[in-house]
Amino acid sequence: MPPSTVALIHCENYEPDNVKSAIERGISLLGGMRHFFQSGESILLKPNLLSGRPVEKAVTTHPAVFKAAAELGLDFGLKITYGDSPAFGNPLTVAHRAGLAAVAEKLHLKFDDFENSILTSFPAGNLVKHFPIAKGVRSADGLISLPKLKTHGLTRMTGAVKNQFGCIPGLTKSEYHIKFPDADHFSQMLVDLTLCLKPRLYIMDAIIAMEGNGPGNGDPVQMSVLLISSDPVAMDTVACELFEVPADTVPTNKWGTIFGLGNSNFEQIKLVGDSIEAFYQPDFKVERGSLSTKHQRISKIFKNQVLAKPVIQESRCTKCGSCVKVCPTTPKAVDFLNGDKNRPPIHNYTTCIRCYCCQEVCPENAITLERPMLGRIFQRLIK
Questions:
Q1: Within 13 Å of residue 103, how many CA atoms lie on the same side as its CB?
Q2: Measured CA distances, 285 to 215, 221, 240, 376 (Å)
Q3: At 114, phi and psi to the nearest 5?
Q4: For residue 297, what pLDDT is reported?
Q5: Which of 42, 214, 282, 361 is least crowded, fewest Cβ atoms below 10 Å from its Cβ?
Q6: For the structural domain made of 297-382, what CATH number should be given?
Q7: What's the per-residue H, E or C state across the chain?
Q8: CB of 247 within 8 A of CB of 264?
């Protein structure tokens, strides 16, 4: 595989002019807008809109990054639309709460259809041969993906490859957690999806990233960098390098390389822009142990004693029921006991598939991932 190029551009804050000039510089180092687009094309911006949390929580792509990408596209003569399907809630409502809709309205950008889908054949898929893709995505000539750098319970980190999951509308995404409950197969699906969609360009918001209990309830951490590339695997690999996690321990990187999506060999990635040494975060709080990919041969008898499980902190729980609504299993692996909504829901770990959707959508940071003692021992043994 030929070398991939990733631009690392220093950007200290979200001041709009700073962000726009940083992104413009990064795209220029990659060959300029003409290298990726033709004037007059319809291009959809795909931010990360996990939920409508306040912008300072670092849950979603920052409005300043979204604005800069949109303006650069418009300046070049592109017809820009945008959209995403959040884990829970109305897409446009979430866009308003995350601050993107206000930017879009000023720029006269349409929020495209992310509630309805078109079944899209993908014969070249390695694992998945068709996807229900949002109509707004299908109507565009191409995509610009705007991921947010965050930790993730299932795949260790969420970045450029995983950002395309939002192109599958609504709770349909939950079906994929049922079909592919372990991190390896789920990541293979994500790689196939990205191969199917073929975004032209990726701009990763890591000015303020998220560590800890991501992707929805972690802690913001200043990293002061934007990553720009046409190779999502190389981009995620460089992100791993920043917090000193081996790239191949992120399953989307591993399978992205195997399936030909991109390059996870750091030595074969060309870095342009600013020196990577300025952005290292060795103390970045991310799961550095094994993921469920290394436990696929474990008997189901031991599964609940080995894999990290979602745990509800009752003192924080507001009984909103978001975790219950998003749980993909039948019957629900997390539910109100006997329908009593005056008490926090409880998990049934015998039916829980460890997809961590409940932890992902909890608006109160009331669900954490805890690895049982046997799992911690097992983790030390296989290192």
A1: 23
A2: 12, 10, 12, 17
A3: -115, 20
A4: 46
A5: 282
A6: 3.30.70.20
A7: CCCEEEEEEECCCCCHHHHHHHHHHHHHHCCCHHHCCCCCCEEEEEECCCCCCCHHHCCCCCHHHHHHHHHHHHHHCCEEEECCCCCCCCHHHHHHHCCHHHHHHHHCCEECCCCCEEEEECCCCCCCCEEEEEHHHHCCCEEEEECEEEEECCCEEECCCHHHHHHCCCCHHHHHHHHCCCHHHHHHHHHHHHHHHCCCEEEEEEEEEEECCCCCCCEEEEEEEEEEECCHHHHHHHHHHHCCCCHHHCHHHHHHHHCCCCCCCHHHEEEEECCHHHHCCCCCCCCCCCCHHHHCCCCHHHHHHHCCEEEECCCCCCCCCHHHHHCCCCCCCEECHHHCCCCCCEECCCCCCCCCHHHHHCCCCCEEEECCHHHHHHHHHHC
A8: yes
Mean pLDDT, all residues of the chain: 92
Are the C-beta atoms of 374 and 302 separated by less than 8 Å?
A: yes
Closest alpha carbon to 70 in 102, 93, 98, 94: 102
> Does residue 200 surpass a pLDDT of 60?
yes
Query: Taking Cα atoms as reference points, which of 194, 205, 187 lies closest to residue 63?
Result: 205
CA-CA-CA-CA torsion for 308, 310, 316, 319, nearest 10 degrees? 180
In terms of CATH architecture, what is 4-279? 3-Layer(aba) Sandwich (3.40)
Q: Which residue ranges make up each domain of the chain?
A: 4-279, 297-382
Evaluate if residue 174 carries a pLDDT over 90.
no
pLDDT for 378:
46
Is it the case that residue 311 has pLDDT exceeding 60? Answer: yes
For residue 378, report the phi and psi dihedrals to the nearest 5 degrees.
-60, -40
CA distances from 72 to 23, 96, 373 (A): 9, 22, 51
Instruction: List the structure tokens of 369.
Output: 């991932």
pLDDT at 181: 87
Q: List Cα–Cα distances, 311 to 300, 319, 348, in angstroms.
A: 19, 14, 11
CA atoms 169, 211, 267, 246: torsion sign: negative
Q: What is the pLDDT of residues 215-237, one digit of tens each?
A: 999 999 999 999 999 999 999 99
Please tell me the total number of residues recorded for the chain in this structure: 383
